[in-house]
Structure formats: C-alpha cells, structure tokens
Design brief:
Length: about 230
C-alpha cells in the first residue's frame, strides 16, 4: 500500500494486538457504533472447523496448538468473506492480517476493488496481563457477545445479558499452555506488522490496558478520525 490515496470507498480498519488485547470485544462495539462489519478470521476458521470443511479440517490441529493457520487458507477465507455484499458498508478486521504475507495480500485485494486501509490500530497491552484476560473469557453461543469471569461477568450467571440465551461457550484454545504459544506466535509473526503500517502512514495506537468502555471511547474517536 502507499498510504496516500484517500477514496470515498467503504472504510477498512484493522485491529492489531496480541490474543487477549480485546480485539473481538472492541470490534463488536465498533460494529454497533460505526456500522462496520466485524471480520474475524478466528471466527471464520472456527465456523469452518465446526462445519467440517476441508479448510476447517486442515486448520483444526494448528489452532488447537496455538500456531498460525497457513496464509493460503486464511487469505482464501478472508477473500471470500470480503466479497459478500454486507462488506460494502465497511469492515473492521479482527485478527487479520497476522503475517507480512497476509498484509501484502490484503493490500492487493483492496487495490483490486479501489479500496485502501484507513487505519491499522494497535491495541497496546502488557503480555503479563493477557493470560488472565484469556483464561476467564466466554461467549454467548447465540448472539456472540463476549464476557469474562472477572472483568465482564453476566448479570445472571450463565445467562447472556444481551439476548437471554443460556448457550455459553468457551474456546478450546483459551487455556494457559496454548495462550503462551499464541503470544509467541504474535511476537514472532504479527508484531512486525506494526512497523509495516507505520511505514505506510496508516498506524494508530490505543492504550488497551484500562476499562473496556474507556478503550472503546478512545478507539471510536480514532475510527472517526480515520474515516472522516
Ligand atoms: P483468534 O480468534 O483471532 O484468537 O484466532 C484463533 C486462532 O485461529 C489463532 O490462534 C490461529 O490458529 C487462527 N487464526 C485466526 N486468524 C488467523 C490469521 N489471520 N492467520 C493465521 N491463523 C489465524
């Protein structure tokens, strides 16, 4: 990407940060506040695993080990999802790109449709807090709302505040051993993207160690500036 050409095309934002930084939680809030579509390659891959597709079957063991799924699989999944009509509203990418190859593929995909990245926003956190954040998290299986045993419990135990469902799910890779591996993969393969987007003039940074609502407010202001 060259970071210069501002088009009136649909906004494209990227959330960068290690596992546990709050990308999913914040992407869902941005989806509601800014009308953007949250695209999580983790969610897309988990859906492929559940559906038993060929890509899902290839990805399953890699995800359980906390390593990164191949660029080829992830880029193909993202390309297909980006081509769906709702993405014309603008997207917030959560968990993609995660390697320099994916970042370059995204630039090429967007260039093909006359789009560009408005901003890559790094959620800055301390690694030491990530294991606790990840270990306690759970999701409503019906509406996708995210919770945490300590930081964001449901008002009524086992019941989603948002939709009332009791279908609570916990990710199989949210355990201490896998988290350590996922943090290592982040630092080795994904953290270099911060410099990539800084060079492109597209990087923004948000301190993501505080309360969820404060981070959401700062992030929302950053998105407003980046899409003005
Ligand atoms: P996440 O939900 O973003 O934490 O992703 C869960 C797991 O899915 C990761 O640990 C990887 O195994 C895989 N994954 C998600 N997104 C990507 C990506 N962009 N590239 C490679 N692997 C990914």
């Amino acid at each position: 990407m060259d970071g210069t050409d501002t088009k009136a095309a649909a906004p494209v934002l990227i959330l960068l940060g290690p596992p546990g930084a709050g990308k999913g939680t914040q992407a869902r809030m941005l989806q509601e506040r800014h009308g953007l579509v949250q695209l999580s390659t983790g969610d897309l891959l988990r859906a492929a695993v559940t559906a038993g597709t060929e890509a899902g079957n290839r990805a399953r063991a890699v995800m359980d080990a906390g390593a990164l799924v191949s660029d080829e699989i992830v880029i193909a999944i993202l390309r297909d999802r980006l081509a769906e009509p709702d993405c014309a509203r603008g997207v917030i990418l959560d968990g993609f790109p995660r390697t320099p190859v994916q970042a370059e593929a995204l630039d090429a995909l967007l260039a093909d449709s006359g789009q560009r990245i408005n901003a890559a926003i790094s959620l800055d956190v301390e690694d030491s807090a990530m294991v606790d954040r990840i270990s306690g998290r759970f999701t409503c299986g019906a509406c996708g709302e995210g919770y945490h045993d300590t930081f964001k419990p449901t008002a009524k135990p086992g019941t989603c505040d948002k939709c009332g469902s009791t279908e609570i799910t916990r990710r199989s890779d949210d355990n201490a051993a896998t988290v350590a591996q996922r943090l290592q993969a982040y630092h080795a393969q994904t953290a270099p993207l911060i410099a990539y987007y800084e060079r492109a003039g597209a990087l923004a940074r948000v301190d993501a160690m505080g309360p969820i609502e404060e981070i959401a407010a700062e992030l929302s202001a950053t998105v407003t500036r980046a899409t003005a």
